[in-house]
């Protein structure tokens, strides 16, 4: 980590200095004039000194953008950070209002595939307005089953529709989960055979998917967790739509700040839930294998990770952090959007956890599975004062690719949906200075001989399942 950081700094310093060649030229002229005793020598020397300061500022900004280290200097001051420890706030792009008589209903994603994602431009592309550019917004082809009913549950039967929609990067997980909030516009009376227009509401879809947390504080100050409860959330969205929109403070709607009529309607929904509670929906709907967008989206390939020898020898460690907030910016990269984020970091030295605010490029393949986990893997430098997100290990922990261990006998032990086992194996390899940038850990390799017993011990449950004979 230290070596790669130094390499980035040196490269950027050389590039900026070459672009600002008048600065070293002014210093050379100034020193030559000063050596000759010229009275005007201070002028180029002063210009060169100011130029050096400018070069330092530019290099720092470029390095911070390309190599986003997180330090204690990035601690948040509490602004915009959700109060609840398990809250996750995601400021998703606004959706269109749609037809005034459109019905807000649920749709299940039966199939999804990436139709187009081909951004152009350099490493970073920044736009001057708050629109979401199409070139950085994946075009996804989906087959939906739309449950076309009104708030009371009446209406026409469910129907299926297949089309292509632009899916904002922050909302890709809703497609993976398979639950969307959509607007169904009434059919054109002049063409009764035409199908009604279906428009996904992406911020609402991330709520239905359970990616974003949601809480409601009633008029008595009681807080109710609405996360991943699609029936309640749909009713609340309909109330919000009829009221012209209800703002959330972080992940919370406080009824005490609403007008009396809207607050009363929200309170009725809460009372109905107390009488007949709705359980949480599953983390993903059946058939996720037909909606695996992460296999087609760009991002760091998942793996057990690389280990720098110097970093390992000096005591560098891995640690886990958790996203608490994500907010889009006007800057994009090919691998994913550049987001303003807040991370909860637990230092390895036993000091209290802290929240750090940092602008990061978040890969699209990770955003497609962020409903599973908001955790990320950080590499901590030996001093424990700086951290860097390790996206290869993060994606493996999140499950963008299935992890496996191959035993010395050639048996494959799947580690899918076993994040604690994966985490233990990652730390073991890092402690021994063993790199394995692939999602498959082959214990038959000679360099892995020293960790075979420990890895098999960590995966003993999977090993037992692999050798258990099939039922008769």
What features would you describe in this structure?
- The protein is an alpha+beta fold and 472 residues long.
- It contains 13 helices and 19 strands.
- Strands 1, 2, 4, 12, 13, 14, 15 and 16 form an eight-stranded mixed β-sheet that branches. A five-stranded antiparallel β-sheet has the order 6-5-3-7-8.
- β13 and β14 form a beta hairpin.
- α2 runs antiparallel to α3 and α10 packs antiparallel against α11.
- It is globular.
- The mean pLDDT is 85.
Q: Give me the secondary-structure category.
A: alpha+beta
The number of helical elements comes to: 13
DSSP strand content: 15-25%
What best-fitting shape do the alpha-carbon axes yield? globular
**How many strands appear in the DSSP assignment?**
19
Summarize the structure.
Helix content is 31%, strand content 23%.
Distinctive features:
472 residues, 13 helices
Set out the fold topology.
Blueprint: H1 2-19, H2 22-35, H3 42-66, E1 70-71, E2 89-91, E3 103-116, E4 125-126, E5 139-147, E6 159-166, H4 172-177, E7 179-184, E8 198-201, H5 202-209, E9 215-217, E10 223-225, H6 230-242, E11 252-254, H7 260-275, H8 309-313, E12 317-332, E13 337-345, E14 354-361, H9 364-367, E15 375-380, E16 386-389, H10 391-398, E17 404-406, E18 412-414, H11 419-431, E19 440-442, H12 452-458, H13 460-467
Parallel strand pairs: 2-12, 9-11, 17-19
Antiparallel strand pairs: 1-16, 3-5, 3-7, 4-12, 5-6, 7-8, 9-10, 12-13, 12-15, 13-14, 15-16, 17-18
Helix pairs in contact: 1-3, 2-3, 5-6, 6-7, 10-11
């Amino acid at each position: 980590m230290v070596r790669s950081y130094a390499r980035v700094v040196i490269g950027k310093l050389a590039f900026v200095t070459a672009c600002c060649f008048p600065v070293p030229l002014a210093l050379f002229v100034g020193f030559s004039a000063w050596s000759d005793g010229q009275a005007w020598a201070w002028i180029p020397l002063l210009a060169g000194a100011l130029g050096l300061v400018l070069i330092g500022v530019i290099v720092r900004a470029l390095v911070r953008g390309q190599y986003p280290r997180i330090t204690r200097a990035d601690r948040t001051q509490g602004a915009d950070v959700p109060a609840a420890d398990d809250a996750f706030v995601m400021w998703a792009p606004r959706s269109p209002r749609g037809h005034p008589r459109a019905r807000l209903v649920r749709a299940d994603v039966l199939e999804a595939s990436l139709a187009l994602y081909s951004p152009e431009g350099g490493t970073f592309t920044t736009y001057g307005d708050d629109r979401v550019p199409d070139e950085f917004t994946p075009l996804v082809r989906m087959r939906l089953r739309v449950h076309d009913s009104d708030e009371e549950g009446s209406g026409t039967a469910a129907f299926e529709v297949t089309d292509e929609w632009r899916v904002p990067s922050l909302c890709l997980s809703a497609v993976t989960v398979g639950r969307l909030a959509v607007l169904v516009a009434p059919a054109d009376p002049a063409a009764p055979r035409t199908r009604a227009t279906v428009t996904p509401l992406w911020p609402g879809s991330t709520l239905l998917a359970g990616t974003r947390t949601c809480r409601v504080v009633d008029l008595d100050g009681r807080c109710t967790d609405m996360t991943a409860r699609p029936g309640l959330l749909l009713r609340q969205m309909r109330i919000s739509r009829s009221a012209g929109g209800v703002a959330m403070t972080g992940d919370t709607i406080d009824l005490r700040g609403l007008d009396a009529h809207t607050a009363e309607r929200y309170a009725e929904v809460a009372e109905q839930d107390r009488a007949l509670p709705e359980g949480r929906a599953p983390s993903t709907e059946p058939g996720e294998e037909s909606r695996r967008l992460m296999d087609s989206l760009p991002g760091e390939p998942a793996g057990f990770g690389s280990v720098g020898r110097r970093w390992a020898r000096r005591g560098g460690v891995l640690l886990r952090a958790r996203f608490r907030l994500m907010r889009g910016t006007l800057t994009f990269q090919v691998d994913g959007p550049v987001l303003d984020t807040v991370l909860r970091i637990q230092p390895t030295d036993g000091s209290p956890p802290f929240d750090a605010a940092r602008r990061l490029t978040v890969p699209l393949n990770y955003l497609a599975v962020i409903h599973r986990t908001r955790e990320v893997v950080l590499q901590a430098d030996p001093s424990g004062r700086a951290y860097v997100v390790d996206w290869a290990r993060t994606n493996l922990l999140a499950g963008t690719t299935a992890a496996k261990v191959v035993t010395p006998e050639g048996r494959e032990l799947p580690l899918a949906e076993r994040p604690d086992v994966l985490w233990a194996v990652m730390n073991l390899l890092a402690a021994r200075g063993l790199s394995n940038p692939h999602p498959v850990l082959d214990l038959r390799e000679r360099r892995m001989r020293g960790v075979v017993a420990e890895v098999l011990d960590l995966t003993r449950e999977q090993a037992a399942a692999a050798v258990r004979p099939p039922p008769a």
